[in-house]
Amino acid sequence: MGTDHVARLTSRISGARVVVVNDFITEKAEQIAAGIDGCRAVADPLDAIADPQVDAVVLATPGPTHEKQLLACLEHGKPVLCEKPLTTDVATSLEIVKREAELGKRLIQVGFMRRFDHEYAQLKSLLDSGDLGRALVLHCVHRNPAVPPSFDSAMVVRDSLVHEVDVTRFLFDEEVTSIQIIAPSANPAAPEGLADPQIAILRTASGRHVDVELFVTTGVAYEVRTEVVAEKGSAMIGLDVGLIRSHSGGIRGGRITPGFRERFGQAYDTEFQRWVDAVHSGGNVDGPSAWDGYAAAAVCAAGVESLNSGLPVEVTMVDRASIPGA
Ligand SMILES: NC(=O)c1ccc[n+]([C@@H]2O[C@H](COP(=O)([O-])OP(=O)(O)OC[C@H]3O[C@@H](n4cnc5c(N)ncnc54)[C@H](O)[C@@H]3O)[C@@H](O)[C@H]2O)c1
């Protein structure tokens, strides 16, 4: 993701320059920096954040590194676009929310990029317009052709479902209060021990129902579909209706996006352009906040608990009003 984000910042986003790159693997950072005019590799991530030439930071290191690096960004007062997850557990995510709130200004945006996808944005506008009446149910499908060998059952919740958790909160403007994960018979093609597919059932504060089919070893392509059922009709996105071609033999069809980069490329670009613009304007954030990262972490923690027990689990979150500025 870091390499992707550097490429988008240097080629497609206006108003930003990549001046410092850091990676645990020094040669990787040096190689990337060498390809960009005026860019340097800095060996220590905390030095990179503190560097006086750096006005704003993109964090695309693995989740376990985020807490320390986010705290450094807050300490230096630097706006940061942090890839999801905010941190890897609920307690540290809450701590980050509190530390930012104490500063009295927003500095953290979390990389839930689906909010910037034009189809999700259209769906949100439709719901907000009231044309569909009150939304009652959300059906989601999240399928990957394959995942790396290190991907385990909890990661299906933390790395995949986390996006639908944010989509739910984004579309419905309310918190998720309980979650149940059901693991039906596993796909024989899934690696040994991986619970795949999984079905997630979420309930929101006002009692709305959300179900998500998560299936990360389909061997087919990247399929993300979202359907809202409301009082006055329903609406669906993610059908991948691009070019439809007729072939000899009487076959008609199109192509499904192979991966998340192709499906959400436009969303990442829009996310970055709006973030860069927000940093320039002094607002620093134009998208999901640290609170959104904390809320997603809380729902996913309850989801992992449910994956182990098979039972519905209540989501435990602090009252937002108890943290002024959060
Ligand atoms: N928004 C999305 O759709 C999306 C998609 C994929 C990944 N992500 C997120 O992006 C982040 C990175 O994921 P990835 O798939 O690119 O991981 P990756 O493992 O492919 O790359 C991580 C990079 O960080 C470097 N690194 C590791 N520890 C470091 C440290 N302490 N300091 C500096 N560099 C360090 C590694 O050397 C590696 O180059 C994760 O938080 C992940 O959840 C988000």
UniProtKB/TrEMBL annotation:
<comment type="subunit">
    <text>Homotetramer.</text>
</comment>
<dbReference type="GO" id="GO:0019310">
    <property type="term" value="P:inositol catabolic process"/>
</dbReference>
<dbReference type="GO" id="GO:0050112">
    <property type="term" value="F:inositol 2-dehydrogenase (NAD+) activity"/>
</dbReference>
<dbReference type="GO" id="GO:0000166">
    <property type="term" value="F:nucleotide binding"/>
</dbReference>
<protein>
    <recommendedName>
        <fullName>Inositol 2-dehydrogenase</fullName>
        <ecNumber>1.1.1.18</ecNumber>
    </recommendedName>
</protein>
<dbReference type="InterPro" id="IPR036291">
    <property type="entry name" value="NAD(P)-bd_dom_sf"/>
</dbReference>
<feature type="domain" description="GFO/IDH/MocA-like oxidoreductase">
    <location>
        <begin position="120"/>
        <end position="235"/>
    </location>
</feature>
<comment type="similarity">
    <text>Belongs to the Gfo/Idh/MocA family.</text>
</comment>
<comment type="function">
    <text>Involved in the oxidation of myo-inositol (MI) to 2-keto-myo-inositol (2KMI or 2-inosose).</text>
</comment>
<dbReference type="InterPro" id="IPR055170">
    <property type="entry name" value="GFO_IDH_MocA-like_dom"/>
</dbReference>
<dbReference type="Pfam" id="PF01408">
    <property type="entry name" value="GFO_IDH_MocA"/>
</dbReference>
<feature type="domain" description="Gfo/Idh/MocA-like oxidoreductase N-terminal">
    <location>
        <begin position="1"/>
        <end position="111"/>
    </location>
</feature>
<dbReference type="InterPro" id="IPR050424">
    <property type="entry name" value="Gfo-Idh-MocA_inositol_DH"/>
</dbReference>
<keyword id="KW-0520">NAD</keyword>
<dbReference type="InterPro" id="IPR000683">
    <property type="entry name" value="Gfo/Idh/MocA-like_OxRdtase_N"/>
</dbReference>
<dbReference type="Pfam" id="PF22725">
    <property type="entry name" value="GFO_IDH_MocA_C3"/>
</dbReference>
<keyword id="KW-0560">Oxidoreductase</keyword>
<dbReference type="InterPro" id="IPR023794">
    <property type="entry name" value="MI/DCI_dehydrogenase"/>
</dbReference>
